Amino acid sequence: MTEELIIAGFGGQGVLSMGKILAYSGIMQDQEVSWMPSYGPEMRGGTANVIVIVSDERISSPILTIFDSAIILNQQSMDKFEKSVRPGGVLLYDPNGIIRHPTRKDINIYQVEASHLASEMGNAKIFNMIVLGAYLKIKPIVKMENVILGLKESLPERYHKLIPLNEDAINSGLKNVKAFHELN
Question: What is the distance between the alpha carbons of residues 9 and 116, in angstroms, rounded to a whole number?
Fold first, then answer.
């Protein structure tokens, strides 16, 4: 099994953290992983993306242009990466702020209203964990117990008290992802 994924959005949405948690989760399962971030100098508000590869085999290169899956969190990223999903692949997005929804018919497209759900849960910072939960519902490439271990590895110890909230957010994403277009 090899999963080649891009996560893209604005800086400050937890794009890089989501990728790092997935990478740590893969490590906890004795898988090969690659985590390659890319972000502008703006950090918050600028664009950010991360390529994550989780595989049972050695990874030959972290540099990709075509992906099995894409998690898209803003319009700029939709415009740039929708066409980069392999036919038959998966595109997951939060419709908040998306003006032009994906139009491809050769991929599986899912939505999760993570911004809305995070607001309902009273904490905008869990947005990325809701998205991560939705992704793991579609593609359970790592086990939930390893995601929690990945959270512990990636979060500074002073934030470990927030792990239960993050776990609730992941579960919210698992329950609230919806198909926008699925291949037959």
Answer: 16
